[in-house]
Amino acid sequence: MDFTINLILVFFVFSFVGWCIEVTLKYRQFGRFINRGFLIGPWLPIYGCGAALITLTVAGLTPVERGIGTTFAISLIVCGLIEYLASYFMEKKFHARWWDYSQKPMNLHGRVWIGNLILFGIGGVAIIHIVNPILYGLFDSLSLVSREIIAGCLSVVFLADYSVSHFVLKLVKIGVESSEADNTEAISKDVKLLLSDRSIFYRRFANAYPDVIYRTEKVKARMEEIRLETEKFRLEAEKRLDELNQQYEKNKAEWDASIRAGKEQLRETLEPTGFIKSNLIEKQNQLISLLYDESTATAPAKTLMSEIEHERLRLEKRSW
């Protein structure tokens, strides 16, 4: 009985601590006080459940192992599982996702991510090895009856808070389901309009989750439509790229031949005139050597051959 009462008190202590953490983080993000959580009071049961389950699990393993590494692993797994299941079932029930880590690295369906899991592990180590010994010392300073009265009063207030908050969530669910919008921003406006003429408790909830993501069937249908359009565009782009690659392979040989012909034509066009003349003279000399025979040549042919040789020597001596 003593352990159970202490565990209930641990639940409420860390529910309050979690609420303080969330309020501080949202104040830094939005610059104003936001009463976080779907409950009216200053507590977030998801934190309390995590701390209580870690305490219970580690206590069950005390005879076997109670090292820091084991505590870290248990805390990471237990709190990660609680966060994932809470996100999943609340989305299924109320058509809204209260937190989304889709843009975070190493996330699982946007419900948990590695950064939070590591913090859960570190927090669990701090709870078991630092905070709980202090809390249990404070609890032991009170009589069992006093602790039972405190735990009982807190439980009654908590259950009353849960009942009222549950009705608020049902109203939110009605607003979400009745909305004709197909995007989460428009649905959020519809919900705030629905809650605007209600009591302060209803209006508080509308402001508690400014970044809530609504997932109605229409929103899911619109998201699926966008996904299909994106997939269609991707397939068309891949098809066009394949066609261009095939066209390139088909024309590659023709392009290579055209390039070679162009290079040859360019080479012939840019070849120096002097070089062409030199080649021409060389070939003329080769032809004359084949046709001219000194033993049978006539006097005029010998004279002409001498003049050609003289002019060739003059040309070779020139540098321009």
From TrEMBL:
The keyword Thylakoid does not apply. It holds the Pfam family ABC_trans_CmpB. It comes from the Bacteria. InterPro entries: CmpB_TMEM229. Residues 227-254 form a coiled coil. The chain crosses the membrane at residues 6-25, 37-61, 67-90, 111-137. Keywords: Coiled coil, Membrane, Transmembrane, Transmembrane helix. This is ABC-transporter type IV. It comes from Pseudobutyrivibrio ruminis.
